[in-house]
Design brief:
39% of the residues lie in helices and 18% in strands. The protein contains 10 helices and 16 strands. The protein binds 5-S-methyl-1-O-phosphono-5-thio-D-ribulose. The site of 5-S-methyl-1-O-phosphono-5-thio-D-ribulose has 18 residues, from helix 2 and strand 9. It catalyses: 5-(methylsulfanyl)-alpha-D-ribose 1-phosphate = 5-(methylsulfanyl)-D-ribulose 1-phosphate.
Length: 324
């Protein structure tokens, strides 16, 4: 698998995540192309969006400056609203603009490098925490959506924890929700777990809570798109039912995310903008309409898990227990 996102000769090369499990790359050379790629989920996952935003500003800074660059930055940051990392990546690169295009590129590359290091630290810290909470035996883990190498620059957050545990021989299996409507679980997490040889089963989203209730899972580990100041967590739609089920079953619900996903400026989950996507993502499956013409759809892309259901948020720097 190529790296999720790379800077090559002034352009951005992305693994096209709409095509997975087929591996294809897409090169974008303008901010308009990048905004389109972000909206279509060619590049997705909060930390990868932060990297894309930062490199997008590096691309724009080669030809634009001042108010024009700032307007472009605002447009890029607004391409998707829920993952805070996109706006964070854009503003970090933009802050370097007074130093010229090379300084902007250096700031953007630093966003990528820091994410790669953060993911490894999160993976190790999360693995240690799960050993404390669940014991040293091989664990049965449940995850949702894709919080792996393809959602970051490399290694992953929730799947970074899985990778760290797997390297220590401490994963019995992973249950991966398929993650309707765009199937990031089957198409992306499935690819990543298969590539590293982790035993896994993909389940329909509706099966997740009852699999937990049947005692088949030791812990839930997910990523996040934004963590509010009070510890409420926005993540892919379908995360909240897993948190409810984990709480009921008395197993840990762990959120693995870099510090850049923690948003002190958003007081709580109610203040997080939840992206609404096209109804056809729900109504059309494999190119065929699966509902009557008269049926409408509601397609929120994320949900909010309240802080009191979160056992811990694991970052590169700390283990935060918002419920305490
Ligand atoms: O719509 P997506 O695929 O961008 O949603 C991604 C998620 O919800 C991930 O779980 C989250 O961004 C964490 S990625 C490390």
């Amino acid at each position: 698998m190529p790296r999720t996102i790379e800077w090559v000769d002034g352009r951005i090369v992305l693994v096209d995540q709409t095509a997975l499990p087929e591996v294809r790359q897409l090169t974008v050379g303008t901010v308009d192309e990048l905004v389109d790629a972000i909206r279509r989920l060619v590049v997705r996952g909060a930390p990868a969006l932060g990297a894309a935003g930062a490199l997008g500003i590096a691309m724009a800074a080669r030809t634009l400056s001042g108010a024009e660059l700032e307007a472009t930055a605002a447009r890029l940051a607004a391409a998707r609203p829920t993952a805070v990392n996109l706006a964070v990546g854009v503003s970090r690169a933009l802050a370097a603009a007074p130093g010229g295009p090379d300084a902007v590129l250096a700031a953007a590359v630093a966003v990528l490098d820091e994410d790669a290091a953060a993911c490894r630290a999160i993976g190790n810290r999360g693995a240690d925490l799960l050993a404390q909470l669940c014991g040293e035996q091989p664990l049965r883990l449940h995850t949702h959506c894709n919080a792996g190498a393809l959602a970051t620059t490399e290694w992953g957050t929730a799947l970074g924890v899985v990778r760290s545990l797997h390297l220590a021989g401490r994963v019995e299996y992973v249950v991966a929700d398929e993650t309707r409507p765009l199937l990031q679980g089957s198409r992306i997490t499935g690819v990543e777990l298969a590539a590293i040889g982790v035993p896994h089963r993909i389940v329909v989203d509706g099966a997740g809570p009852s699999i937990i209730a049947r005692g088949l899972v030791d812990a839930v580990v997910v990523g996040a798109d934004r963590v509010a100041a009070n510890g409420d967590v926005a993540n892919k739609i379908g995360t909240y039912p897993l948190a409810l089920a984990a709480s009921r079953a008395g197993i840990p619900f762990i959120v693995a995310a870099p510090e850049s996903t923690l948003d002190p400026d958003t007081a709580d989950g109610a203040a997080i903008e939840i992206e609404e996507r096209e109804p056809d993502e729900v109504l059309v499956v494999g190119g065929a309409k699966v509902a009557p013409e008269s049926s409408e759809a509601w397609n929120p892309a994320f949900d909010v898990t309240p802080a009191d259901l979160v056992t811990a948020v694991v970052t590169e720097d700390r283990v935060w227990r918002p419920a305490e």
